[in-house]
Design goal:
- With 542 residues, the protein is an all-alpha fold.
- The chain has a single domain, classed as Up-down Bundle (Amino acid/polyamine transporter I), CATH 1.20.1740.10.
- The chain contains 19 helices and no strands.
- Helix 14 packs antiparallel against helix 15.
- The radius of gyration is 23 Å and the shape is globular.
- Belongs to the BCCT transporter (TC 2.A.15) family.
- This is BCCT family transporter.
- It is a multi-pass membrane protein.
- Keywords: Cell membrane, Membrane, Transmembrane, Transmembrane helix, Transport.
- It is found in: Cell membrane.
Length: 542
Amino acid sequence: MYRQATSGLFKGMNARVTLVAIIMVAAALAYGAFYTEHLADVLERMRSTLNPFLEWYYVLLVAFLLFFMIWLGVGRYKNVRLGGDYEQPEFTFFSWVSMLFAAGTGVGILFWAVAQPILQFQENPFIGEGMSPEAARVAMRLTYFHWGLNGWAIFSFVALVLAYFAYRRDLPLTVRSGLEPVLGKHNHGIMGDMVDLLAVFGTVFGIATTLGLGVQQMNAGLSAVFGLESSVTLQLLITAVIMSVATFSVVSGVKRGVRLLSEANFWLSIAVVGFMLLFGPTQYLIALTIESAGDYLQNIFGMTFHTNATVSDGWQSEWTVFFWGWWLAWSPFVGMFIARVSRGRTFREFVMGVLLVPTVITIIWIGLFGGTALYHELFGAGGIVQAVDDNVATALFATVGAMNLGIIGVGLSAVLVVLIATYLITSANAGTLVINTILAGGDPEPPTAHRIIWGAVLGMLTAVMLLAGGLETLQSAVIMAALPFSVVVILMVLGLLKALHSERFAARTGSRTEAPREPWADLDDAGTQPTPVSPDENFRRN
């Protein structure tokens, strides 16, 4: 652990980091509450100023992380285990996947699975004419791109680094541990504190952004089911209820509250997906999902490096920069949460699970929901485009309405409201737990009082972001929050490479003193098996 206080208000926490974090977030809350319009204006001007830089910087960083993760999963380090020599995974594969998916993209994918295909269907830089069959195909490709392998490469990288240093190097489960090989003794001082503060800063605003989007969508669902008018007041009430339930859940811990709720979300999601497949245009949905998935894979290389350099239409900033910023801002939170539930897995298992499985699930989800909306616009009565243009949060429920299912459609909308609520709760309680784990110096069971405090803080910040202007302000906030943490991500790459090299170097020079861990590729040019050494000894020697 790092600098945990032993008494007083901050008992069990890193007092210095916690105090600064509280002051920083409290200042943001006060500024947003009393100068709401000014906050929205400042965020928008900052975003406009940095856009030319971010349009290539985020692209290059995310492209590197994608290829780096693929290399870790199939290269010489693929058999490195996140834990002891022959340690087995703590959770079953199903529980593991359901937790990481629920925390990672549950809320966001519910919001954008229809909204993004419909918005891209109308206009994007890769088509000549919008609202056409070709536009529908390209819209699906772009949606897969922003929710597929590239985004999960960010989450999986941060998670793998945290898990490696926590379970193989016996360092605290906190972001600064990933920089131990780079910062050395400075990692235990002010520089390490700054790293954790940047992680908290990105996490807080990343969660607030996603909660804000989910609350707006839940408001739209309540309007569809009960006829309640969309209003900021109702959204604030929803935020209060969601955060109250989430805080109660996080107090019960990961193995009980978070795991059970994540699995319930996953089963309910499967039921909803099955319903959409059976009651929607089944043949069209299957064909479109297969075709658009192939189109996505065929074009992923070009899209990964696309910067929209020759066109000044704002598309790159509005879409790719926002989504890469959103994934980066969420990466400390989701990364740490995934690391907590991934002990005992090898690099290969980890990359296959965290990079590929959620991407496949996402493709199916977007294919069915986005495909249903596009079908009704191309071949049905339409109306979804107009609904999205009026209020993007209504996209999912406008699609259900276009299916003309009568009372069954109302029931489906009600189920979707419940699903949104449970995903919001899962994301909020996991985020609260992660923030406190960072502030507690890596303690996986931070003090209960601080879990409650930060649950309330997240709720208040979400409320301020909603009051400050809704979607645009939320997008600008998350992009700005992600930028400083992106520097930490780059340093984490260096830290991981240095640590892996030191371990492999020790193996090649025959300095091991324990039973071998996992087989290495090219351990010795002569084909001999060196004597193993513990990872902690490797780290100290190198």
